[in-house]
Give the backbone structure.
Amino acid sequence: MTSPSLTPIVHGIFDKATWTITYIVHQGVGSACAIIDSVLDYEPKSGRTSTTSAEKVIDYVTAHQLQVAWILETHAHADHVTAAPYLKKHLVGKTAIGDHITQVQKVFRGIFNLESTFQQDGSQFDHLLASDEVFQVGELVGKVLLVPGHTPACVAYQLGDAVFVGDTMFMPDVGTARCDFPGGDARTLYASTRKILSLPPETRLFMCHDYPPNERAVAFETTVAEQRAKNIHVHDGITEAQFVEMRTKRDATLEMPVLILPAVQINIRAGELPPQETNGVSYLKIPINAL
Ligand SMILES: [Fe+2]
């Protein structure tokens, strides 16, 4: 059972380069914590990685003397590379993602014609989380909400009165996530947004990204009530058919994220690079016209 009465402390760290928010969820100095959707900096022109964003997570965890129980992903991100292995090395903690990641691994194994030793059973992660599975973060109880649509393996995490929605919806003035990646589906995303929006109105919702329009400041916390009243794509009254039509038309206009090719290839390996070649270097692939 989750404990919605509990109000965990949520610290968000915004990564300007990828518009991503990494969360550290805990119950005060010295408690256990979960890290959700971390970022490894990746420079696409050179293929160079760096850890400025991850160091901010490490600094916060260290300053608050937190013990990392979990390093969680809401899905295999297409717009940034996870820092999970780096954080695990420096902070310990178990890596985890929704168990439908195996479907995503199968699809991208085909698209990238990955090496025959690439495992498509999710074993790169320490643990695969099933729908409705509960997990402990110290005394805080977490619950996995399966919310596919953006990808077939998306999950949200409910920790006390806070839900980390991943790429299902964004702030009310931005709307919802795209559904045109392999295995994505607008009808499915609509159902997932209704699932989240059926939670108690005061439930705090934390976005995985913010793309602030009209020069508003970056924001990443809202509530079920606010989304139901104001989300431009899924406020109360918008039907599934209206949503699917809007989402499909809009997705047809969107370019691929700058980091999709490196991000997907690394994130389906839980953040590890592909096997080194004989010269000791890892390489990523660019399929021509395949995505
Ligand atoms: Fe995403």
About this structure: The first helix runs from residue 52 to 63. The first strand starts at residue 9 and ends at 15.
